[in-house]
Amino acid sequence: LLTQQHIDTVLHALDKAMDVALSYFDNPGILTNELKDIKTIVDLKMNECILNELSGMGFPILSEESDWKDKAVNLSGWIVDPLDGTLNFTRKFPCVGISIAFMVDGIPTHGFVKDIFNNISYTANLNGRATKNGIAMNVSGESQLSNAILSTGFPSGANYGTSELMHFVSNVQKFKKIRALGSASLMLCLVAEGVFDVYYEKGIYLWDVAAGIALVNASGGKYKLTKMGEPYKYEVLASNSEIFENALQKLIASR
Ligand code: IPD
Ligand code: CA
Question: Is the CB of 85 under 6 A from ligand 1?
């Protein structure tokens, strides 16, 4: 498992990648901007920076910005999204994360997320606590859907068909409010610190959520990761423990 030295290396990688992001703040360099997705030079530069720092540790690395499509599915090692919320970054909407998880046999044991615009570091260790800038955090205690905030989104490859969207709308009517911020990793951080109560997204990639899931788990919450057809694609529910079964019934089991 990871030593303090490994963890220090990740924290250093996050700081360096954040410097890279800030150096492209006014000029992210849009490479592709098709359908529901966008890719910039910043994604690639941050990826290069993070992989340089992590590769010396000798664990396998799966990154959104590397050639994952050809890789065998391997769910042990680092799972990296160098820039989660690329569209937000290009619009300067201050909700952008760097997401690094460590997984062992499909379980996210460690999670590290950096909120770039607000310079906040979130860390989690399976056997320890989840922290926000070094201070322990907890999920909310909300148990009623009618009082709960659901954070969610529609991933780039998701089904935008009318019946799929209408079904989603009928599922979420029970919640008090819905928030969609455009960065899965940071929405999960907000669940981990009890600002939001539930996170749900269908068709999201593992690198967007692995670190955030470790954070929710170490903050006292629960999660369910369900594999979808394509490699690394999942339906994800994460919430505080009180509301988990209710949210599961509403969002997943009732289908
Ligand atoms: C996106 C964000 C967004 C989610 C999309 C992701 P990206 O990440 O996490 O919240 O709805 O599915 O693709 O593409 O900016 O890394
Ligand atoms: Ca990304």
Answer: yes
